[in-house]
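Input record (one chain):
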Amino acid sequence: MEATSAALKDSSTSSLVVVMVPFLAQSHLNQLLQFANVVSSYDIPVHYISSTLHIAQVKSRASNPIHQLTKIHFHDYPLQFSSSSSLPISHHEDPFFNSKFVENAIPHFEASPNLRQPVAELLQSLSQTTKRLVVVHDVMMASVVQDVVRIPNGEAYSFSCGSAFIFFASICNALGRNDIVSIKNMPSWESCFPAVIKGFVDREIEVVKFQAGEIFNSCRAIEGSFLQSLVNDFGWEKKKVWAVGPLHQTTITNNKDKWLLEWLDKQESNSVMYISFGTTTIFSDEEIKELAIGLELSGVKFIWALREADKFDVSSTNGEGQGPQLPNGFEERMKGMGIVVREWVSQVEILRHKSIGGFMSHCGWNSCMESISMGVPLATWPLHSDQPLNALFITQVLKVGVAVLEWEQRDEVVSSSMISRAVRTLMASNEGGEVRKRAEELGGEVRKSTEKGGATRMEWDSFIAHITR
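The corresponding structure, as predicted from the sequence alone:
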């Protein structure tokens, strides 16, 4: 607790303190960390709160220079995970149950409310050392920070790690107005969000009655029309809304993945496909085999980040072995054509490289934002939650991607021929060329938005001006 005491002392001379409270998942942790860097760049004290496990995780994976991280006061708390879940996770209880995600993630949903007491105590302490306490919380952590309403000089802002389009689509779904969304084959909400996840999110959103504004990791160059519609058409005109993305490092290079970048330096422009399915995905041996065969059949060069899903307890050895298994001889046959990496890699660094011409992704919003920002088109393979809607947004609205899997096919094993066809379409066809052109143009607009005078920079300035009013 010495670090916490020192942090409280440091903040005692400030008229403003900002506290970041992310949800316990890598993409959520990283987005709030990047926004913490933005706020701290305005010389505002920032405190970042999470569990001991997740603070260690986000620090070890951060692409930020160390001097940026030292500007942020980290507060970590031990978190006990239940050995057995009390939430329904069987097919009998939830016909849309998706084992790729739910089993591995449920402990995070069950454990996160345990942070409420230590967070409340910290907020109370910080509030006594500053004129204004600003809490920026993940929308999925509303119940954890709800005690801010008892702090006279406190105010809270909800942060969405998903797209504005998802908010727009969810309101349309609640109103029974899916006709407003110009997308073919709009998936049902129930098919995307397993009951356990939907129930948790619904409960958190119900708690969010106290926020002073909404913050999105999005960019008006990407979602301006949907952000405007939320304000004009759905009663958000009295809310403060900011689009502060893209929230990732866009100009800083690190040496973590130097060997991968050196290999990419030797490849032709737009010739390599990057494949990654995030930190919560579990593929079967059959699916991995089909993906490997599909990549081999495509004849396209690739970097494949193949790793186990994040476990809720890194000290646990249950189920740990050699990780996902590739077909015999695959890596030997692919020497010179492809690289399989099993450790954590900097996705932004890889996507930024001129040799990357496509990204096969699960379409988590963090990955979508990173790919769009770097002008890299996507091969979409959604798996759960907001991903099916993000995939349709990518392929049908922005038209900067092609589908590996349509959501109606989700119960099928994606065959090697489907994978090969999607990879060839994106990387070696006229259609893929047009998709890439649109992605590059949009990526250029997004990158300009983070430059001085750009739309995103103005959003940052607007948020800072509001909380320092």
